[in-house]
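Thread: quick sanity check before group meeting

JM: Hey all, I'm pulling together slides for Thursday and realized we never actually wrote out the predicted structure for the chain we discussed last week. Dropping the sequence here so it's in one place. If anyone has concerns about the input, flag it before I start.
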Amino acid sequence: MIVLVFIVVFAVVYYINFRRSRKRLYELAGRIPGPFDYPLIGSTWLTIGKDPLQLVAHLMELMHHLPSPMRAWLGPFLLVVIDRPDMVQDILNSPDCVQKPFMYDFFRLSKGLFGAPANVWRKHRKLLNTSFSPAVLKSFVPTLNAKADQFSRELEEKVSSECFDVHTLLARYTLITISSTSLGADLSVEKREVLEEYSSNAIQMFTASFERIYKAWLHPEVVYRMTSAFKEEQARLKLFKQMSRKIIHMRQAILGAEPDKAKDDQQDSDPEDKQEFPKAKVFIERLEEISCDPANNIDEDGFQQHIDTLMFGGNDTSAQALSNTLLTLGMYPDWQEKVYQEIMDIAPSGPISYEDLSKLTYMEMFLKETLRLLPITGMIARVPTKEVQAKHITVPPGAIVLIPFLKIHRDKTIWGPEAEIFNPENFLPERCAQRHPYAFIPFSQGPRNCIGMKYGWISMKILLCHVVRQYRIATDIKLNDIKLSLSLVMKLNTKHLIRLERRCL
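JM (edit): ok, ran it. Output follows.
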């Protein structure tokens, strides 16, 4: 009895002190509308019993009828949902709001740019930014053209009246292109089934990690480690890391063979030319360089996680975006012909030049409209380290700010009454000028945006040029048939089933 009383008293005292230590947080939270506050569980009950597909539909329905911004509670954690573009801009551009919440640790990439703590990310991002400079991107264009041409030729065997899932092929293609360009290792020498297994395994692993986020009872690591989900994760993680380890070994072999060649090049080169035109380093070269400096705190595991982050970021996101775009091109043949005619006017044959890419206005409009209605990421999250002002509200430190791209991109107050209808003319220059610049940010924005954003645009445009120039695309799937499933990379409820017909050139 005495022990029980002691436990109760201890719990009460702890709770009072806990509330007192968060007084300012509760004060600021009270100024934000929030209809789903329940003791202890907060808003967690909204997710119980729902799979990722049901969760998207349910949250989308709620969010179109709820106040903005909005407060919710995930157990003891304050969530602030912000979907107004002007407020999103305040959050993403604040130097005090680049930290990501603890849930990002679930993806086991807490040393790479994706999930690193703010202080680590800030230093590493600054050091790695040059690996996606205009000079580096321009140097990738010949390789991207060669890989896209090879991919287009491989599609010959798919020409028929039968549908096939193009995502499987594109997942392999994007893995090869990101490794051949930014990682300095050509994975096309690997067996097709090995590359496809890597992509499939990574998707399943990160999907399961994302599902852990809205299952609050699995948040404590000590609890999670007792589940079968943890055992499956570890098995998938081991398989996932085999590819980055393979790239590291390939790079070590390359570097081991290079010293003599580098010495000869140095003797033959003009010192003045070398100083005036320094060679731009790609991601892996820059990473190898900065990891040699102990002050940068990149250990062996951190080195590999940087590679893992870039591989998955350049693989699954690009593959999904390209697959979605080929699907929508098949849905809207009139727009497909506009894109085709534009390609034929600018680059009717051969490689597409770096300069030509900026001229593909119809293609860019079409890509952006696809990304608007079928976003790669459904939402992102940030944690302020200090009080952050977003227009009329003050977000307290420690709160988790959710920015739902899926909702913003379909908001009728932004996109008009036909927001759910596919229309690339939404991205005509005059219409873009009328919208807030943060109404469409598919790769995020602000200092912690996607480091490979420009690479993504270039690689997607080059691949589409080669494919659309050679084939007419068709599909039986309609946009209204597609339901989105919430994940790290948004999934569709259907495969990317298309048919190809060879164009007469």
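AS: nice. Residues 261-278 have pLDDT under 50 and may be disordered. The chain has 21 helices and eleven strands.
JM: adding both to the slides.
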